[in-house]
Specification:
Tscrpt_reg_HTH_GntR, WH_DNA-bd_sf, Arc Repressor Mutant, subunit A, Four Helix Bundle (Hemerythrin (Met), subunit A), DNA-binding transcription factor activity, elongated
């Protein structure tokens, strides 16, 4: 029986594991899936369902979940079982704040140092992503992160890119909730569209102001989206 996976998560391993496999092998694969956000926040991890998916008995799965709990990657509720950790509002706010600071440095570098062709190519790419998201394409959640990763590429900020990409990985599930709400998405696209325009016009101050608006908007949305995520997770159980 296949388990429901969160948007953007990895697939269940296709090569079936047998009962002779050690709990270490199950632990390794489960840990990879948890770190890759294959499960929704607060989703219950039922040993027998996972065992069925892995084609093993429940014992090595339960042992693996106990190890993951000891590492703080999953939680255990008495008389209820194993669950993914819930969405963390404080952590999400910190991640978005860090992301905004790094993007500000990259946008400043682009405006101050990038040539006209680089800026035009960047703005053109951003506009393609924005148009696709307005059409509510299936990969809208992915495009949401690509919009600003393009800025990091244009600025040649490889280190910043790796950090921001890590932020996007940690907020993947939250982003999937974001693109499902038309009200949030429309407002966000308006702000990002303005930032793209100001980059093209090399209006640094205006770009920074809209980037600050983007951060404030994200921080305001986080608690509401976390609540929505909890509702969705418990409906799936």
């Amino acid at each position: 029986m296949a388990l429901p996976l969160a948007m953007g998560g990895s697939e269940m391993p296709s090569n079936a594991l047998n009962d002779a496999k050690s709990s270490a092998a199950i632990y390794s694969q489960l840990k990879t899936m948890v770190l890759n956000h294959a499960f929704s926040p607060s989703q219950q991890l039922q040993p027998w369902s996972l065992a069925d998916a892995f084609k093993v008995s429940a014992t090595p799965v339960r042992e693996a979940l106990i190890r993951l709990n000891a590492e703080g990657l999953v939680v255990v509720y008495p008389n209820k079982g194993f669950f993914m950790k819930p969405l963390n509002i404080a952590e999400s706010r910190e991640l978005y704040t860090l992301r905004s600071q790094l993007l500000k440095c990259s946008i400043e570098h682009i405006i101050d140092h990038a040539g006209r062709e680089t800026v035009s190519a960047l703005v053109g790419t951003l506009q393609v992503h924005l148009l696709a998201m307005r059409m509510v394409e299936s990969d809208a959640a992915l495009r949401l992160e690509l919009i600003f990763e393009e800025c990091l590429h244009a600025a040649g900020s490889s280190v910043c890119f790796e950090v921001v990409h890590g932020v996007h990985e940690k907020t993947r599930y939250l982003r999937s909730l974001f693109v499902e709400d038309g009200q949030y998405l429309d407002r966000y696209l308006e702000i990002v569209g303005d930032i793209a325009t100001f980059i093209q016009e090399r209006e640094k101050k205006s770009a920074f102001e809209r980037l600050r608006d983007e951060l404030e908007f994200k921080l305001d949305c986080v608690p509401k989206l976390c609540d929505a995520g909890l509702v969705r997770a418990f409906r799936c159980q």
